[in-house]
From TrEMBL:
The keyword Transmembrane helix applies. This is SHS2 domain-containing protein. Keywords: Membrane, Transmembrane, Transmembrane helix. SUPFAM superfamilies: Actin-like ATPase domain. Residues 343-377 are annotated as: Disordered. It comes from the Bacteria.
């Protein structure tokens, strides 16, 4: 049986992509790949809705790739709707306090409960001797739901990664010398990540994507979405007035993001790469090249040269690349997730790049030890003195030990049964929660894209930043970070 050690798995609301890589010289080759579509209502906004049907689709993509389902572990991509990025500055002398700063400040920035925060961070040189800090965070409950699902399929997750970070890992051999915008055009949303030589510096989403083009065709031709989807694969954007209108609106949003990146962060994007299923739309590359004012090209991985994977598989390729291939953009390790614990002892609180603090579970004191202390105290308390007969003392002591032992054993069995029942209840609750979806935490609802767009297109919404950016240095005496951009990806 062929061994697969570098497997990347990308699950979106509409497709599953899987790539297995093999090391070859300084690069990699594609050992196996698979891609299947999934019906609406199985995964929504990155959350599992129908676990049984998702398991069937997962089995199908493994079968297509020729990889045993219960093979080696995988790297799994967390969608941007469940990843938070915050960038800020601190003085060099406060670098040692960084972990404490994060534990105090993250709950004030993120719409997550304290105990639900997992985070990883990276530091790099800032202006005027300061230290820039990049924090990536996600929900513990969200990760737990996916871990439970994969465990039930017999799949081990070796690493969780941000989808944008994984995509960058595949596109760049190291970080780009000049700032690049990576535009991932999916089915429902388009994610834009701006990367410079330090890593990701901006992340935003646009609610114009593949299904918007499909809706434009459906409205223009008076057909349903399924028929429009088939038509879209054969159509040039220039051949449809409404598709041209959608492409122009997408270009307008991208121009706005580039201008804001320059104005707010003094970063001028020099290049743009298109990835994702929507990037293959005929004529889109030409339209955007004429609109955005910077060179636009389809993304390809220099680490997997000549591979027939295309931009559709680029994220799965980035996930499959070994963790050490670009360590400064690692995210979370499944075996060492960083828990948010405000009461964590300082001696275990230092978290550096590539060093992760594993989850700890508190172990209750063992029952036999408690029993020994209790018996010792009782025996001391019931000493009768030298004037009592030895026989009487031994008889009373034996009787007490017998009574206490019986009481203790009954308590042990009762406690054990209660613990077993609690375990069964917790497992049932976990599975039920998984099947019913873990609810979004303090997230505003997304306005769904209409299946049939009106003849006069109302292009949905403004782009929403997913990075929070503090343009001023942080001082430990401040009560909170000054946030210039505070908006949640939807």
């Amino acid at each position: 049986m062929m061994e697969h050690t570098n497997i990347g798995l990308d699950i979106s609301d509409s497709t599953i992509e899987l790539v297995s890589l093999d090391k070859k010289g300084r690069g990699f080759t594609v050992k196996a790949k698979g891609r299947v579509g999934i019906a609406p209502g199985i995964v929504e906004r990155g959350e599992i809705v129908d676990a049984a049907k998702l398991a069937q689709a997962l089995s199908a993509v493994y079968q297509q790739a020729g990889i045993p389902l219960r093979s080696q572990g995988i790297a799994f991509g967390i969608p941007e709707s469940h990843v938070y990025i915050h960038i800020f500055s601190i003085p060099e002398e406060q670098k040692k306090q960084l972990n404490d700063i994060l534990r105090k400040q993250l709950p004030k920035i993120l719409p997550l409960p304290q105990k639900d925060i997992h985070f990883s961070f990276q530091t790099y040189p800032g202006a005027n001797g300061s230290v820039r800090v990049r924090v990536l965070a996600t929900s513990k409950k969200y990760i737990a739901a996916w871990q439970l699902f994969f465990r039930e399929q017999g799949i081990k997750v070796n690493r969780f990664d941000s989808e944008q970070i994984a995509t960058a890992r595949a596109l760049f051999s190291g970080m780009p010398k000049n700032p690049v915008a990576v535009v991932d055009i999916g089915s429902r949303t388009t994610h834009v990540g701006v990367f410079d030589k330090t890593g990701i510096v901006r992340s935003q989403t646009i609610h114009i994507a593949g299904s918007t083009f499909t809706g434009a065709i459906a409205a223009e031709q008076g057909i349903d979405m399924a028929a429009a989807e088939q038509q879209k694969a054969q159509m040039q954007i220039s051949g449809s007035p409404t598709m041209t209108q959608v492409a122009a609106a997408l270009g307008d949003r991208l121009v706005r993001i580039l201008k804001e990146t320059t104005a707010r962060q003094n970063i001028a994007v020099a290049d743009m790469m298109l990835v994702g299923g929507g990037s293959a739309q005929q004529g889109l590359l030409d339209v955007l090249s004429q609109t955005v004012g910077v060179p636009v090209r389809l993304g390809a991985s220099p680490l997997v040269p000549g591979a027939d994977v295309g931009s559709v598989f680029i994220e799965a390729v980035g996930l499959a690349l070994p963790n050490g291939s670009d360590p400064h953009i690692e995210f979370l390790d499944a075996n060492g997730l960083v828990p948010f614990d405000p009461k964590a002892p300082k001696k275990t609180s230092t978290i550096q790049r590539g060093q992760y603090q594993p989850l700890k579970t508190s172990q209750p004191a063992s029952a036999p030890r408690k029993q020994g202390k209790l018996q010792s105290a009782l025996m001391k308390h019931t000493s009768y003195g030298k004037n009592k007969s030895k026989f009487g003392i031994e008889l009373v002591a034996l009787l007490l030990v017998f009574i206490l032992g019986a009481f203790f054993m009954d308590s042990v069995y009762t406690y054990r049964d209660a613990q077993r029942q609690q375990g069964r209840d917790e497992q049932a609750a976990q599975i039920q929660q998984l099947l019913e979806r873990i609810p979004n935490i303090e997230q505003p609802p997304v306005t769904p894209i209409s299946p049939i767009l009106p003849p006069v297109l109302d292009i949905p919404g403004e782009e929403l930043p997913t990075t929070t950016e503090d343009q001023t240095s942080y001082n430990a005496e401040q009560t909170s970070l000054q946030v210039v951009v505070v908006d949640r990806l939807q």
